[in-house]
Structure formats: structure tokens, C-alpha cells
Amino acid sequence: MKNSAKTKLDEFSTPTNIKLALLWASLMFLYIYNDYFSMYTHGTIDDMAKGRLGPLGQATEPVLAGVAVMLAIPALMIFLSATLRPLVSRWLNVALGIAYTGIEVLTLSGAPLFYRIVVVLEIALTVLILWHALQWPKHAPPE
Question: Which of 4, 52, 123, 133 has a 20 to 30 A CA-CA distance from 39?
Fold first, then answer.
């Protein structure tokens, strides 16, 4: 029997496209939990019953459609990051990583502490998405 202290754990190098998909999935969980916990803040349920969507104002069809698209994109990026051609995936992840970092920064102002904590984690994830996409390993063409 080998000494377990000297045994190395098996290493697996996760492909970049899978790392990106997992980062988008983690980001979606943070979005969902932050929105869920936000319902416990004073006045949120009353505002929802009155058709108001926080700082976005009245929950009109265009506002709700915009929010739906904004939240659908990260959900779709889980699949797209794993399946698109690397070059397309790379630049889509770069563009959306920048865009969603900006969106998250805009939500920090005036938010409750719990919300800001989660948004900082969301920003960390979108920065990681951006970093991994930009650092995507290149392979030499076959000779």
C-alpha cells in the first residue's frame, strides 16, 4: 500500500469553453439568488403588486421584454460557450463579459449590503469570463 501523503491527485485540465460555460452558470445562480433575496427587502412585494420594477420604473411590456433579453443572454451563454467555435465563443464572451460587468457596476449604487456583496461576486465572475476568453490557449497549425 502506498503512502497516501505522497500520492498526487489526478489532474484534469478543464477546456476553456467548459470553464466559460461553468462561469456563466455560476453567474446565473448568483442572479437568481440575488433577485430572490431582494424580494425580502421592505416594499419590494408592494412595488411588484403595483407593477413597478425597482429602479426601472413601471413594468411595461418593453421594460419586461428588455429585462427578459438581458437575463436570457447569460443563460444562453452557458450552452453557447460550450458549443460555439472557439474564435466566435472567445469574442462573444469578451463582448458580453464587458457588457455584463458594466451592467453589474450600474446596480451597485444604493443597493442593500447583501445585494452589493453578491454583485461584487458577479463582477468577479464576469471579469474571470473576460480573462479566460482573452487567455484562450492557441494551438499551432499542423505542419
Answer: 123
